[in-house]
User: What shape does this take?
Amino acid sequence: MESNLKGCPFCNSKAEVLDLRKYKVFMVKCRKCGAVVEGASKRRAIDRWERRENEAMVQELWKVVDEFKVSVYGDKHDNVRRIKGELKGILRKYA
Ligand SMILES: [Zn+2]
Assistant: This one.
């Protein structure tokens, strides 16, 4: 179940559940940037981590970011122009 957690909303990295029940809390924490949410139960912490506004838009934006990482070594001006266009298109679509 934990391996199916959504990526971090800030950096899209993998997250893990921390069992801190001796402190009466569970946490879901990003392994890269340290973003964290808490819950009184494991379920509650995971529900909070998984709750996203504009999920579809965020997924499209992350796709562009990943594509940019791959294409950054090509012709930079062309890539930046194209990616700016893609981002504008996505933002228009969800405005
Ligand atoms: Zn993160």
Q: What stands out?
A: The longest strand covers residues 15-20. DSSP finds three helices and three strands in the chain. The mean pLDDT is 88. Strands lie at 15-20, 25-30, 36-39.
